[in-house]
Amino acid sequence: MSNLITRRALVGGAAAGAGLLLSGCDKLAQNEGFRKILFSADDVHRGLQRALSNRHSLAKEFRPDQMSPVFRANGTLNPGTPEYTAMAAEKFANWKLQVTGLFNRPMALSLAQLKSMPARTQITRHDCVEGWSAIGKWHGPMLGDILKRADVKPSARYIVFHCADLFHGKNYYESVDMFDAFHPQTILAWMMNDAPITIPHGAPIRLRAERLLGYKQAKYVMGIEAVESLEGFGSGQGGYWEDNVEYDSYAGI
Description:
Elements: H1 2-12, H2 15-22, H3 26-29, H4 32-39, H5 41-52, H6 82-89, E1 96-101, E2 107-110, H7 111-116, E3 120-127, E4 133-140, H8 143-149, E5 158-167, E6 170-177, H9 178-181, E7 186-189, E8 191-192, E9 195-196, E10 206-209, E11 221-227, H10 240-245
Parallel strand pairs: 1-11
Antiparallel strand pairs: 1-2, 3-4, 4-8, 5-6, 5-11, 7-10, 8-9
Helix pairs in contact: 1-2
């Protein structure tokens, strides 16, 4: 567990906490009071970035010739459930994105409908907490446009992404707050590198929130839900890795 905490502290930018952990203070790392202080850096990180950056400031974008020759597929490579396998076999012709929760016009959008929406194309760098990065090209509608189309309610504070994969037997999910949900580089991508997204990379659609670390980029998105609180989803920390490995719920870069 101490190794996992150290990793999370480094990711979250908690330099002081990370220094203590790296110096071997494992007993301190197991202290619940200390852990609460250490993990509170998540909110500090979020607040500082929001205070210092423009709402629409963009992550760096790259030229086509700078794209990585190989973009690693990470995490689940195929959900493999009977339901997903059936959808993939028919090339997601009957798949629909479920838009639920705090919306005045909840809806279900087919892949064809998503493809018909105005879209954004961006070439960006994916930064993984495991220490690797890759530059890829993504194309799809902005999440904010979908939220507007469904008329998200003012009480919504988070968007939860429900995914098709089970990870270690648990339903995989992720979330972003409304600030990142409406960021222009937050898209539901259905194309990667000028081709439909493959199954290992998250078909039929995946989240790309380019100001966040790689583990926030949910694959195999089946539905989005607008909620006021993250309680009731997993352990309430905002995503699978946040619940199980104590990664930051906010992963701004």
